[in-house]
Specification:
The protein is mainly β. It contains no helices and 11 strands. Strands 2, 4, 5, 6, 9, 10 and 11 form a 7-stranded mixed beta sheet that branches. Strands 1-3-8-7 form a 4-stranded antiparallel beta sheet, with no helix packed on it. The termini are far apart. The mean pLDDT is 94.
Length: 118
Amino acid sequence: QVQLVESGGGLVQVGGSLRLSCAASGRTSSRLAMGWFRQAPGKEREFAAGINWTGGTYYADSVKGRFTISRDNAKNTVYLQMNSLKPEDTAVYYCAAGIIAPQIPGWWGQGTQVTVSS
């Protein structure tokens, strides 16, 4: 079992930045693929960014060039640096972990709200 706890969400103005953190515990997390999904009001949850255990990264087209995912295996923590935020980035952001790939999670965090005001 893997427990994931997100932090770092909040309210930010258009063009601003936020950094989300996700602390993992339980099963050895350094070998897990980690990712961030988001769900905007009235929309389905979507993949935003992911990183496998060797450090390879994946991004949705909508965030490419603005978001950066990274991980610190010693701290069992994954980060999402979000720059140049837009109103359409407003969503609940969920940390996820999986065995096979970041896009196929087996465990979820509780989510953290990110609101971008114009």
